[in-house]
Amino acid sequence: MASTLDSSSDRTSELKAFDETKAGVKGLVDAGITKVPWIFHHPPDDLDKTLIVATDGKFRFPIIDLEGVRKDPFQRKEIVERVRDASETWGFFEVVNHGIPVSVLEEMKDGVCRFYEQDVELKKEYFSRDYTRKVIYNSNFDLYTASSTNWRDTVSYIMAPGPPMPEELPAACRDILMEYSKAVMNLGNLLLELLSEALGLNPNYLKDIDCAKGLAVLCHYYPACPQPELTLRATKHSDNDFLTVLLQDQIGGLQILHQNQWVDVPPTPGALVINIGDLMQLISNDKFISVEHWVLANCKGPRVSVACFFSTFLTPSPRFYGPMKELLSEENLPKYRETTVRDYCAHYNEKGLGRTSALLDFKL
């Protein structure tokens, strides 16, 4: 028992020492480390050995072309059918011709790099673990509760409702962050229309119940890892929102769990990755699925990604979400109890990544 307590105490001390640098994982790399600190080691028994990586080309990741979605009703119908199929069977898909110029996507990725690669003292101004703030920079939101620490730093911005004042945003990425957030909100509204139609509902249904009311933009930075065989990957998880729009660079490494196999999400130039979140699975009563995913560690780096979460994480709201009544019948009874977004996210965060899905705890 003593050794277990000592080990726990040592880990807490190491985590605290790392956190207090306020320099994140990038700070370790900048210091020239050649060996990964043990708090970042993912033990082999942490892997589910029943799962394999699909390498035989068996699966073709869905890519949906949105060209003509607002002009051609026949084209729109076909797109809705593809969105329905991908949301039911994959929980993930990529979109092209989504309306956001490639130049904006590239500048957004550059903006992320500028933030992380600026002087550490400038970054420290935004360092916090107070998740009521609209701008937060740190490494691992569940640093003190997770069994293994992920080789990743994150800066997050709550951009809707009630975005920060421009001067509250880092100068290194201020302009592009505001431009990109506006563009993603427009795309998110379109995607929610398509998902509503895919459920057989009015196009505005999901927007009318505030699924597009909130937007959090999480900018991840994965420095090159000197020992990726020890850090393995970021912890597997599903997202705790309604919908996620992900911009990833060309390094790749994102994998999703599909038919009990890990499948690569290809870094298609100009494409955005879309995935269903836990709350969308809950309100669709399992019609659409929120799928576990992770990012493999790499020695190339830095890998950057921008994950935009449609959810009112921090906004107090009396609205309860449960399986949509329009989808229920005697053959399709509700599978989940009602919850608020805030309560679901609080439970998700308290549970931490890498354990069983938080969604299971809301099953009836």
Looking at the structure, the CATH topology is Jelly Rolls
Helix content: 25-40%
Terminal Cα separation, in Å? 38 Å
Summarize the main sheet. 8 strands, mixed
> Which class in CATH terms?
Mainly Beta
Strand content: 15-25%
List the strand order in the largest sheet: 2-3-10-7-12-6-5-4
Structural class determined from secondary elements? alpha+beta
Provide the low-confidence segments as ranges: 1-6
Task: Tell me which CATH architecture applies here.
Answer: Sandwich
Q: Please tell me the total number of domains.
A: 1
Figure out the total of helices.
Answer: 10
Cofactor: Fe cation
Organism: Populus trichocarpa (Western balsam poplar)
Protein name: Fe2OG dioxygenase domain-containing protein
Family: Belongs to the iron/ascorbate-dependent oxidoreductase family.
